[in-house]
Amino acid sequence: MISPEKLAGMIDHTNIKPNATKEEIKKLCHEAIEFNFSSACVTPVNVALAQDILGDTSINVCAVIGFPFGTNKLEIKAFEALVAVEDGAAELDMVLNIGALKSSQKALVRRDIEGVVESADGMVVKVIIETALLTDNEKIEACILSKEARADYVKTSTGIGYPGANVHDVELIRKTVGPDMGVKASGGIRNLKTTLEMIRAGASKIGTSTGAAIMNDLLNL
After folding, report:
1. Which residues of the chain carry a pLDDT beneath 50?
2. 3-class SS at 65?
3. Among 24, 25, 161, 184, which residue's beta carbon has the most beta carbons within 10 A?
4. Residue 131 belongs to a domain with what CATH number?
5. How far apart are CA 113 and CA 128, in angstroms?
6. pLDDT at 1
7. What is the pLDDT, as a whole number, of residue 217?
8. What is the pLDDT of residue 71?
């Protein structure tokens, strides 16, 4: 069984709901401190607030970019990433251009990711590929392009409106990116059992809005 410390260090505790209140973001951050999660993941408008709370801790602020559809022009994503970093984000979870990927516009998809990587200026970049919308071959291509563009992680899902992570997709992503690139499983991960399944499949990070409940499940075993 995984230790509480190791599991907490793999969790991006998340509230990216459009109706999230300031009080809910504060609660998210305080839970991140309580359990010593890897990061608190929020929308760009909440990055500065999260940084105000977490700035003196070891917990990163993670911002979603091009969220939730990935359809912003690449220049907009790059600028959004730049502002998020200026506001205090140390990690960026960007949605790639899914339509471009499905149209076989590989160079455009790569530039889309590279623009965020460059704006991140050394901060961690995770590429959300929204696996529910892709064939397996397209998932593989998305992973290859993410790696070529020097992203740090491939992430399964936004968790908004589509089915989230599953064991098959996590295994496929891990097999494609190899052992040295991060894999983040997210979307629909709400309990300890599912969390452990994703880790066994190859996930090195877990995105979830129920991090506190998952940790309490482990601590109460």
Report:
1. none
2. strand
3. 184
4. 3.20.20.70
5. 10
6. 83
7. 95
8. 97
The pair of three-digit structure tokens given for residue 177, joined into one six-digit string = 């990116």
Give residues with Cβ within 8 angstroms of 204, minimum separation 6: 10, 153, 182, 183, 184
pLDDT at 45: 98
Cβ–Cβ < 8 Å for 134, 143: no
Contact yes or no for 211/192 (Cβ under 8 A): no
Active site residues: 93, 155, 184
Radius of gyration of the chain (CA): 16
Tokens found for residue 47: 């990055």
DSSP code, position 163 = -
Residue 221, pLDDT score:
86
- Amino acid at the residue 127: V
HSE-CB at 182 with a 13 A cutoff on CA atoms is 21
Report in angstroms the alpha-carbon separations of 184 from 44, 74, 104, 130: 19, 22, 24, 12
Provide the domain limits for residue 36: 4-219
Report the amino acid identity of residue 116: V
pLDDT at residue 44, as a whole number: 98
Structural domain count of the chain: 1
What's the predicted TM-score (pTM) here? Answer: 0.97
Q: What are the tens digits of pLDDT across the range 6-55?
A: 999 999 999 999 999 999 999 999 999 999 999 999 999 999 999 999 99
- Name the residue among 49, 51, 44 with its Cα closest to residue 16: 44
